[in-house]
Amino acid sequence: MYTLFGTENSGSAAIEMALEQCAVPYELVNACSWEEGAGKEALRKVNPLLQVPTLVLPDGSVLTESVAILIYLGLEFPGSGLLPKDSGLRAQALRALVYIASNCYAAIGLIDYPLRWLPGADDVLQARFESGARARLNESWATFADLFGRPSGWQQGAPGAVEMLTAVVTRWGEAREHLQAFRPDFYALLMQVDAHPVVKTVAQRHWREDT
């Protein structure tokens, strides 16, 4: 059985979606670096960085990083549809997943934790830093929509790893508001992904205001 360490409103939601899509049994352990408890200590034993999501595989080995976990599951369960079977489409899916991690996920870390990068910064400098990171995040999502959000390559009716990760990471940093205003066609496709039963069920557990 798989064991997934994660918490509400976090990137572990994308891994839950993927595990549900793969139809494999898994155990959820509520854990994160910012809440004390048994879950945090259990997470520390398998991932000293206390990052979520962290996935313990059935053989006891540990896998971290959302994109790595999604790619692993897509390869391990090819019938799940997490990764396209066509080699050309699969190559673009891998590109899109790494794009999200490198550009969008990274910008969220800057917005949420400015003092990690500017220790001792005053409120004015922090605000400027966050504003710049948010502008970069919005630019990255707009470019993502242009590159990967065409209906011909977007699996809104049968979400794969790219669509699931996008459905989660766009919930942070006011990205959805920006996409709705500046990339409305892509935003409409994203809403169709949200309506998929697997995505919707997991999202409702994480973002309870959407229930």
Automatic annotation (TrEMBL):
<feature type="domain" description="GST N-terminal">
    <location>
        <begin position="1"/>
        <end position="81"/>
    </location>
</feature>
<dbReference type="Pfam" id="PF13409">
    <property type="entry name" value="GST_N_2"/>
</dbReference>
<dbReference type="InterPro" id="IPR036249">
    <property type="entry name" value="Thioredoxin-like_sf"/>
</dbReference>
<protein>
    <submittedName>
        <fullName>Glutathione S-transferase</fullName>
    </submittedName>
</protein>
<dbReference type="InterPro" id="IPR004045">
    <property type="entry name" value="Glutathione_S-Trfase_N"/>
</dbReference>
